[in-house]
Amino acid sequence: MCMNGFCKGLLLGIGLGVAAEWLLMPHPRTRHTSVGKAMEKMGNAVDSALENISDRMH
């Protein structure tokens, strides 16, 4: 059994799969769960807080 060919085929398949998903779904997926929405809100709050702090320091 030729492992070199198998590894090349496996990497090629993974690469093509990633490329196909990237082309078919160019927009980021939105979080539909309540946990995902809460995480997104927390991330946005932290980002805005850091922006406010950096603006006040200048």
Structure commentary:
The chain is an all-alpha fold. It contains two helices and no strands. It has helices spanning 3-24, 34-57. The longest helix is centred in the C-terminal third of the chain and has 24 residues, at 34-57.
Briefly summarize what is shown:
The protein has 58 residues and is mainly α. 79% of the residues lie in helices and 0% in strands.
Oligomer: single chain
Give me the number of helical elements.
Answer: 2
Q: Helical residue percent?
A: over 70%
Which regions contain 5 or more consecutive residues with pLDDT less than 50? none
Tell me, rounded to a whole number, the average pLDDT: 83
Output the helix-strand order. Answer: HH
Helix and strand arrangement:
Elements: H1 3-24, H2 34-57
List keywords for this structure.
58 residues, mainly alpha
